[in-house]
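Hey team,

Sharing the MFS transporter run so nobody has to redo it. Sequence (430 residues) first:
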Amino acid sequence: MIALGPLLPLFAAAGILLAGNGLQGTFITLRAAMEGFPPWAIGLMGTTYYAGFITACIYGPRLIKAVGHIRVFAALAALAAAGTLALVLIVDAYAWMAIRYLMGFCFAGLFTVVESWLNENARNQDRGRLLSVYRLVDLGAVTGGQFLLPVYGAGGFALFAITAIMFCISLVPVSLSNRSRPKAPESFRFDLGAIWRIAPLACIGCFTIGLTNSAFRLIGPLYAEKIGLDVTGVALFMSAGIVGGATLQFPFGLLSDRASRRVALGVATAGATFAGLFLSLVADGSPALTYAGALLFGAFAMPLYSLSAAHANDRAEPGQYVLIAAGLMFFFSLGAMAGPSIASLVIELFGARALFLYTSVVHGLLVVVTLWRIATRPGVPAQRRTRFVTLLRTSPMIFRLARRANHNRSGHKRDGRKQATMGAAPERDA
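Structure output:
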């Protein structure tokens, strides 16, 4: 049996944060449109959110090392609550961009705290199951949070208050949990050149995923509203994408274990390309077809980050895993900074249905790059791979937890080094 008791407060805090952040990401887009903000401004709010996110990925561990987990968590949760209330008090596009930067910084920092704490307190034999529980918390919290949107609507004060309350309440389980003092995240030299040399395809993949998944997550509500869905329809559309993201994670993981990381990455990217075309050219505003398209898009697009990360870790050496974690998060965030702005500009120039033509073009380019890498660099036998692990895009700390979980499952050495990767043994096929 997995010993969840000591970790329940952290799961509770994570669930509350995930629900509140997921809800805010959806309703803030709708509210900005109601306030008359132009699409380009709504897109820039997504850009500044991920700019804050990437800043916290770099400086968050330093804050934790300086003052400790609980103090950093308390400070960032308080800032997130204050920023949420400031959104409704200062209705100005540029002020909202600045606040969304703050929110991105807060949430990347908050999840760095939670996940480094989970990693420190988890028993070695429980890490794989702990990751599974964490993914269920993520899926349930984010999906459930979406349905507060039709209950309260995006037009009043209620959702601002509810999300601010969530961020404050997340302090309770963390503050009243055990008195353990986890170690601060380890320091490392951030070297983008080294990360690129280890796995260029993974870097390109994470950048591409940032361009497209951030557009779906932050501009998707605007797309759904512009094609005529009501508030309940917007919630269903976003939830379909989230649920879809959970359905094919393990099948693609199995494919990547038995065939090739790059083959699985190419198949998933091709599926995301066709799902985008389906939404743009076939759904034609039909609610049922639109929800089905969102489900398909999530099913193929959401696993791409885990597949890219597994591929990178196949090629990493011991001691490089934290660097890989931060580097891939950096490339994802770099793409995610550009994605919402590009997507909003596409909608402004060509209409709502062009959003998924944009994602299809970007995914299609990744398919071409993947096929080129497969053609120019051979892979290795399947028996040299260990098991695939799916990941949340919350903070670099989730990589460390996943890496240790996979190491515990393999429990032996091959080719003179421990198989401490998140997805495979050294399948040198980048």
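The domain at 5-418 is CATH 1.20.1250.20 (Growth Hormone; Chain: A;).

Ping me if you want the raw files.
A.
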